[in-house]
Design a protein that fits this description.
The structure holds two protein chains of two kinds. By secondary structure, chain A is mainly alpha-helical. Chain A is built from 13 helices and three strands, in the order ααααααββαααααααβ. Chain A has a single domain, classed as ABC transporter involved in vitamin B12 uptake, BtuC, CATH 1.10.3470. Chain A has a two-stranded antiparallel ribbon with strand order 1-2. The two termini of chain A are 29 Å apart. Chain B is of the alpha/beta class. Chain B has two domains: 100 residues, P-loop containing nucleotide triphosphate hydrolases (Rossmann fold, 3-Layer(aba) Sandwich); 238 residues, 3-Layer(aba) Sandwich (Rossmann fold). In chain B, strand 14 and strand 15 form a beta hairpin. Classes of the chains: A mainly alpha, B alpha/beta. Chains A and B meet through helix 1, helix 8, helix 9, helix 13 and strand 3 of A and helix 6, helix 7, helix 9, helix 10 and strand 11 of B. Strand 3 of chain A pairs antiparallel with strand 11 of chain B.
Chain lengths: 338, 377
């Protein structure tokens, strides 16, 4: 598993470098600090959502409501801030997270308690959450003029020449990647995603783990909602209309199997970066926007075909490899341990 | 027979569904009707109705190939009988010329035993007692004892209820009635995790669905049942200890692989089965239940698994061995229980029984006891 994962992730980095190089050859401005920063900030917003989506998909579920959750938490948080311009930023983040967690709990209840398949449950909440924020907004738009500068500055802050938000996203990616790979909870998610039947025989608490991924995904969306307002300065009820598609695309291109149980959180983050670079490259080179859609689609299909070939080759190589009993020589006689 | 044709099929009984299948086949003007174990999922009363229909079809001039593993059905219904063993035809002859005993002899043949007989060892005190176990729709009043160091063979045909009984012991299927005692203390395993806590391990019959996570490497598969013990309070898995345990057990099972990080999907069936065995030995069970541990694996791996199981018994593990293979339970079992349609129908000690007696107990006259049995597939 880990070897295959490493090959996939190295492949993603290689693909990313090739894309960057070919855009730079035609348009050297690609490497301008300002341009790279824009790419970074786009990747951060989609990427953090993709982290949550990756956990959900690894557990063999899906969350279509991420865009609506981001919009709802962005609007409610910004709305509060516009009304309380002297309010603390900590409270804004708490509001965003609270809204996200509440919506995540909503998804979890539908999937775990009401036993509705995730694709249907979140299709429903996608509409409900979006509808709720449209009603709350009532056509209003919260613009940068009514939002305090301190809030908008979040997206401008730097540390070591790199936007602070990029650091935050990197930290989140490493943390969640670590949890997924090295903790019992992470292993349980992979087991559930690969073989729910097996998870039951082992005694893994399916309900608890599924609820966890939906709630974590909601929390990450709530966090991104607050960042969204800070980055764009303008918040309305219809922001991020295709975010669920972008997040799922990043997860799939990042090597997470849509059937659950394999792939990594790191891959999903890399997938988000690749899409941010592609989008920027298409704009920078003045290519018709239609091509962005086509390139996105080609990237998804191409990587999925590539992964299945890779998996099949790796399996064939393992079957063909010369074999001997594991640890023979070191092997204690049977029963030494029993 | 009257069936309301407007009802959805799920609303009618199994025998009515079979009638609909037969009618569908006949609507194609079939001259030959093949019925593959049509009686395996219906009760004795329904079997009579089905036989009635089969006889009517025969009178209409339709040729019927009736497949069954119950001897009395084949001898009672058939005009001619063909017996297959290991993919070869053993005999074809008129049904009237065969007795049940002769049939069994043809079914089991005289194959040389390529098995690893159980090592002699001392049998200790009773570890597991099962009293009047009923549930899963048809398991009825099953009682037995299991002692430390003993291998208890559980023999029976497909659908006899063997897996259902052990799944109740392991907390997968709830029991309707009965009592389970571990070391004399009554326990109620409500989940597999409960059962593991009582020192029970179950190697499931289905290697792929319930047994292994094929996308996982050998290491992660083997440590699944003890992952909670390998994790610290933060949930962080002790990977050094995990790898050490996995390497140790993989070596003991003599799994042939590149290493403990090899994906289990790329192992041969026999090696997958050894990984599965390692997985369920890691919790260090007192009671080890093996549901068809050697099905579909090659002779070499089979002998290795027998060697390991036998050795475990010598280490005082109490073992229940389920098998379709009469020779296997005869070679390995200290005692052998025979189940038929959810009931315990015979108990033998190893020396007091042969293949033929086992097979007769398992396959003959299913219709004496089970007037109420409703096998739910």
């Amino acid at each position: 598993m880990s070897r295959l994962m490493r090959i996939r992730e190295l492949g993603l980095v290689a693909a990313l470098l090739v894309i960057c190089a070919s855009v730079t050859l035609r348009e050297p401005r690609f490497l301008n600090a300002e341009n790279l920063e824009q790419i970074g900030l786009s990747a951060v917003l989609v990427g953090i959502v993709a982290l949550g989506e990756a956990l959900v998909i690894i557990a063999r579920q899906i969350d279509l409501s991420v865009g609506a959750m981001v919009a709802a938490s962005a609007f409610i948080a910004a709305d509060w801030l516009a009304a309380n311009p002297d309010g603390s930023l900590a409270i804004v983040f708490l509001i965003g997270l609270g809204v996200g967690v509440a919506m995540g709990i909503g998804n979890a209840l539908l999937v775990v308690a009401a036993r509705i398949p995730a694709i249907v449950a979140t299709l429903g909440t996608l509409a409900i959450y979006r509808g709720a924020v449209i009603i709350i907004a009532g056509g209003r738009q919260i613009s940068a003029t009514v939002l305090p500068d301190g809030y908008l500055a979040i997206a401008q802050m730097h540390a070591g020449g790199v936007p602070l938000l990029v650091w935050v996203a990197v930290l989140l990616t490493l943390t969640l990647g670590w949890v997924a790979r090295f903790t019992r909870t992470g292993r349980n998610l992979y087991t559930l995603g690969s073989s729910p039947e097996n998870a039951r025989v082992i005694g893994i608490n399916e309900a608890w783990h599924l609820a966890l991924v939906f709630i974590v995904c909601g929390a990450l969306c709530g966090f991104v909602g607050v960042l969204w307002g800070a980055r764009f300065g303008t918040v309305d009820a219809v922001l991020a209309p295709d975010l669920h598609l972008q997040a799922i695309s990043a997860v799939v291109v990042g090597g997470v199997s849509i059937f659950g149980g394999s792939g990594s959180v790191y891959g999903a983050a890399l997938g988000a970066v690749i899409f941010a670079v592609l989008q920027n490259g298409v704009q920078l080179l003045g290519i018709n926007q239609f091509w962005l859609q086509a390139v996105t689609g080609a990237a998804i299909l191409g990587t999925v075909i590539f992964y299945s070939l890779l998996t099949r080759r790796a399996e064939r190589a393992e079957r063909a490899a010369r074999r001997q009993p594991v640890g023979l020589g070191l092997a204690t006689r049977l029963g030494a341990k029993q | 027979m009257q069936i309301d044709v407007r009802l959805p099929v799920k609303a009618i009984s199994i025998v009515e569904r079979q009638v609909i299948e037969i009618v569908r086949a006949l609507s194609l003007d079939a001259h030959v009707l093949i019925m593959d174990e049509p009686t395996s999922a219906i009760s004795a009363r329904e079997i009579d109705r089905l036989f009635e229909i089969v006889r009517q079809l025969k009178q209409r001039g339709i040729a019927i190939l009736f497949i069954s593993h119950f001897i009395d059905e084949v001898l009672g219904l058939g005009d001619d009988v063909t017996i297959l063993r290991s993919g070869r035809r053993v005999i074809s002859c008129p049904a009237a010329t065969l007795t049940p005993e002769q049939t069994v002899r043809h079914m089991i043949g005289n194959e040389p035993s390529a098995l690893f007989p159980k090592e002699a060892g001392t049998i200790g005190r009773t570890v597991l007692s099962v009293r009047h176990l009923s549930g899963a729709g048809f398991v009825d009043d099953v009682s037995f004892d299991l002692k430390a160091g003993e291998i208890l063979g559980l023999f029976g045909l497909v659908g006899a209820g063997r897996s259902e009984v052990v799944q109740m012991l392991f907390g997968i299927t709830p029991l309707d009635q009965g009592e389970i005692l571990i070391n004399g203390t009554s326990v109620k395993p409500r989940s597999p995790r409960d059962a593991m806590r009582f020192g029970i391990s179950l190697l499931p019959e289905d290697r792929h669905q319930q047994g292994l996570v094929l996308q996982f490497p050998i290491r992660a598969n083997e440590t699944l049942p003890i992952l909670w013990r390998l994790a610290n309070r933060l949930g962080l898995v002790d990977r050094v200890k995990e790898a050490r345990l996995a390497r140790e057990f993989t070596a003991q099972m003599r799994v042939v692989a590149r290493g403990i990080e090899q994906l289990t999907s790329t192992l041969s069936g026999g090696n997958q089965q050894k990984v599965l065995l390692a997985k369920w030995l890691l919790p260090e069970p007192r009671v080890l239940i093996l549901d068809q541990p050697t099905r579909g694996i090659d002779v070499g791996a089979k002998a290795e698994i027998h060697r390991i199981v036998s050795h475990l018994a010598a280490q005082d593990v109490a073992i229940i061995l389920i098998s379709d293979d009469a020779l296997e339970v005869l070679a390995m079992g200290d005692r052998i229980l025979v189940l038929r349609t959810g009931r315990l129908v015979a108990e033998f000690t190893r020396d007091a029984v042969d293949q033929q007696a086992l097979m007769l107990a398992a396959a003959h006259s299913i219709r004496d006891h089970n007037a109420q049995a409703e096998v739910v597939k």
